[in-house]
Amino acid sequence: MKIDRDEAKRIAGLAHLEFDDAGLDRMAGEMTKILSYIDQLREVDIAGFDGGSSTDATPLREDVPRPSIDRAAVASNAPAFSADGHFIVPKVIGE
Amino acid sequence: MSELLNLPWHEAKTQATARELLDASLRAIDERNPALNAFLHVARDAADGMPVAVKDNIVTIGMPTTCASRILGSFVSPFDATAVARLRQSGCSIIGKTNLDEFAMGSSTEHSAFGTSRNPWDTTRVPGGSSGGSAVAVAARMVPAALGSETGGSVRQPAALCGVVGLKPTYGRISRNGLVAFGSSVDQIGIVTKTVRECADLLGVIAGHDPLDSTSSSASVDDYAADLDAGIRGLRFGVVREAVSQLEGEVRANFDDALTVLRGAGAVIEEVSVPTIGYAIAVYYIVANAEASANLSRFDGIRYGHRSARAKTIREVYFESRGEGFGDEVKRRIMLGTFALSSGYYDAYYGRAQAVRARLRADFDAAFARFDYLLTPTTPEPAFAIGAKTGDPLAMYLSDIFTAPANLVGIPAIAVPSGFSRGKLPLSLQVMGPHFSERALLRAASAFERETGYWRELPPVCT
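Above: the input entities. Below: the structure tokens describing the complete assembly.
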């Protein structure tokens, strides 16, 4: 599987990562090399094997309210936090 | 005083108070850590108790958690990981946070944003990774025990390269609550100690169901130390044919010597085939990276960690913060994982990898129908030089060739010291068992340790 610069750029966009052209080319080359190793999986006979979802259902619990994380601790870790308890971010709507 | 730290913990605590032992540990850290860079943070105000070091991708109250990355900034977790809380409740003292490859992505600790750790047996060489700091902390006798984490071998491989015991429990045996997620279907907290008994004791403290981790098992917690002296007479060990057929030189000779020791103790040893084991690395690097690409999306500059000072729009907050905060290996793996999950490639890559994984599980199940344990060396080679593999990601990934299978199928596995190379670098035997067979696994490891006693040898930094 060959990854070229455009494909690397597409993937980077999905991953919310930005690279300059040199970075994209380097990433494309490394991914190509790694994926060509991974491509050996094509030779495995997987008939009858479904990697899909686990047969175990996700355990559920009763919806009982419990104390959560202390807000002061949240505020101290936040890059920007308002006095009334909101994370401050640049405008989202309209972008 | 520091000789106390060379003793197994149950002996050391008969000879000194908890305070004296903690102080001995702090002194050993002050003396040995500067040259080894095992610790990213030392808790000088640690409470009295058995000092345990914690890999810095496991959250702890009152001290930083960095995941050896710049992207977490000065983050201090408001909660303890469940395993950490259980250690504290049992009287252990969390003495510090250990170095790792950034976000546990690596096999050498060289991908830490804060410099590599160094192997105490030869400080020009890597300690392995990603739990390199934890392995060094125990190998250099700075602490009697450390928590690490495993996704593809990241406790067993550095334990092997540093000459200590490293256990990966069954998937679900130890709660993942508070372990920063990398590959959620494979991640497990692991234990590093110098002896098998210390490992068994700690497993009993931290294992068990946790309502905060829906993948944690309700299987009852066993008395893991109960069979340590029971021996292995008549027990059946399968040597994985596809693993050993490639071995040569010192690693081959050492592995054969280990088999001789086990036979001498009464083990029945035969070869067994696990036909798809050679594909485990390829499966791992799709599945783990795919899951990582989702798990690391939370590092976005919004709620915690680094937010780029250059960011003016919301898009820039995400892209610039992540670009500035993540190292190259992390970015590489996020890219691979994103690709494997992306439209048009999901079935061919992630879907196929999961199907091969299911086949690998079937191969292991078939092998365990005939054998109590499976054997391989832990790693294909002893500790390599710092810088030797950082230019070749794929070469680095192949360090996990014997360890990653156990992560993918969820079985427990342990690395025990099996001797030294001609260059006095540690070598290691890996024993694998069926799901939830930790008690039996520790029994086998203990028998091997009893016959060999390699843990009594100390690296140069301790003598």
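Note for the figure: The first helix of chain B runs from residue 9 to 15.
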